[in-house]
Fold this protein.
Amino acid sequence: MRILFAGGGTAGHINPALAIAGYVREKEPDVKILYIGAKGGMEERLVPAAGFDFKSITISGFQRKLSLKNVKRNIETVVHIFTSSREARNIIRDFQPDICVGTGGYVAGPVLREAMKMKIPAIIHEQNAYPGITNKMLSKHADKTMLAVADAQKFLDPAAKCVLTGNPVRQAVIRADRAASRKALGLDSRPLILSFGGSQGARKINEAVAELLVKGAKSDRFQHIHGYGQWGGWFPDLLKEKGLNLSEHPNMDIREYIHNMPECLAAADLVICRAGAITLSELQAQGKASILIPSPNVAENHQYHNAMAMVDRHAAAILEEKDLTGASLCKLVDDLFKDPDMISSLGKNARSMAILDANQRIYRIIKEVLAGI
Ligand SMILES: CC(=O)N[C@H]1[C@@H](OP(=O)(O)OP(=O)(O)OC[C@H]2O[C@@H](n3ccc(=O)[nH]c3=O)[C@H](O)[C@@H]2O)O[C@H](CO)[C@@H](O)[C@@H]1O
């Protein structure tokens, strides 16, 4: 079997593709997998690191806010629509896939469209309750549109052939064990706080977490791992300005991107993060207590709705960005750790929401589509 994947822009689109690809490779070690991503996107690093062949095409998205710079970018995007289709077509011709799987993000558009024109079976996966623009466009002609949340169907083309699968989570996340992960990370018996602001990081979360790290360093009560993101290069200097010298605190660790997320998640006692769809599925798979800070800058405020689905089931705490300060975050963390039963019940309730067989369901759909069912 030869499978072509396309999806990218943020890890929220890349990691589901890697989860599906990883599962299929476990089931069928002879499978040939190729991943097409966008030149310059996070997928350029993440996909080869996961051991899959990768090719890129040049593509960009339309900028909605009008400015001179954005007009120029939008003209480039129109040019890319044509050139990227040609690039995608050439890669597809060379690779000759049996099926093409799209997981959202601009790059999936030209790849899946060209595959469909070439009569190659094409299926897409939507991670959110509110679908992204690429999947909305592709859903009309896709052989199957796989959904994480049934509600997404009402925003898709009426012709979409929808099937509910849940979000695919990487096997490494599902399997990671707390005790083994804590040992591998060199942690001691104090609680571990894990924080990050989505796959790209978030300025406001960095600023609030800086306070939490300073306070944590003084009290020495916690161990902490924080991912500050690709635009957060200023974060280490902020800590220095605040007088925090991390070399004196070996179990306080900051990094631009957390590459060993399965271990870090398994080891954590409390996770502070955005409410992107895949992050939430991972929290559920690992049954972790969390403080969710939804991004207010996403289509239809969908991260708030993602978060509330957990908060309403007492499976996470929420701190809205408008209420987020160093002080409000420190207080909520203190309150939670004062109440160990609360931390444990948030984790248990999160786990009860997990859909752990999404990879199996998607694998079955791939086989059915290939068999013409
Ligand atoms: C601002 C934005 O557009 N966010 C969207 C984006 O979020 P984003 O790209 O942040 O996606 P998710 O929260 O869904 O997934 C993030 C993934 O990155 C991993 N990770 C993150 C940080 C890190 O340092 N290391 C690491 O490995 C997480 O474990 C997870 O697997 O895609 C999601 C899925 O379509 C959407 O729900 C989000 O609304």
User: Anything to note?
Assistant: The chain has two domains: 2-169+356-370, 173-352. The chain has a mean pLDDT of 96. Residues 173-352 form a domain with the Rossmann fold fold (CATH 3.40.50.2000). The chain has 15 helices and 13 strands.
